[in-house]
Amino acid sequence: MTGRIKLKYGNLDVDPESKLPTQASVHVSKEEPHQYVITMRSNNPMSGDEQIRHLAHEVKHIEQVESGRFDVYGNKWDGQTYPTGYTKQDYLKYPWEKDARAAVMDMEVAFNRYMRDRGSDKIKKV
């Protein structure tokens, strides 16, 4: 996927329901092969760890699209169409959102286990 994913920083919309700014988003081009632009909120007050979690979440959405499970423009997951015009509660129940949140938690657990068991010994001290 070299050259098909770009990362940028910028202003993101405020979520109309929670009134909180969106922390990260991914735009998927309609043409194939898809081009992806992940935007991270430039004035993000969250910790670096939390920002990495948001980035990983968006990367998971790219994986979902590439695997064919998630059709962004048809609002489909595994061939099933889901309604648009959602509330925040509906949005959190979408299977692609549940999958992305679970994947981020799994990645975090795996990374922490790696660092505990092997990784911290391999980091060179400067």
Topology:
Layout: E1 5-10, E2 24-28, E3 36-41, H1 48-67, E4 70-71, E5 76-77, E6 80-81, H2 88-93, H3 95-122
Parallel strand pairs: 1-3
Antiparallel strand pairs: 2-3, 4-5, 5-6
Would you mind describing this structure in some detail?
With 126 residues, the chain is an alpha+beta fold. Helix content is 43%, strand content 18%. The chain has a three-stranded mixed sheet, with helices on one face. The protein has a three-stranded antiparallel sheet with strand order 4-5-6. Helix 1 crosses helix 3. It starts with a strand and ends with a helix. The mean pLDDT is 85.
List the main descriptive attributes of the protein structure presented here.
126 residues, alpha+beta, three-stranded mixed β-sheet, three-stranded antiparallel β-sheet, 3 helices, 6 strands, 43% helix
Number of separate strands? 6
- What is the H/E string? EEEHEEEHH
CA-based gyration radius: 16 Å
Placed side by side, the strands forming the largest sheet appear as 1-3-2
- Class based on secondary structure composition and strand pairing: alpha+beta
Distance between the termini: 33 Å
Query: What proportion strand?
Result: 15-25%
Mean pLDDT: 85
Q: What form results from the Cα inertia axes?
A: globular
Tally of individual helices:
3
- Can you give the helix content as a percent range? 40-55%
Low-pLDDT parts are none
Largest sheet: 3 strands, mixed
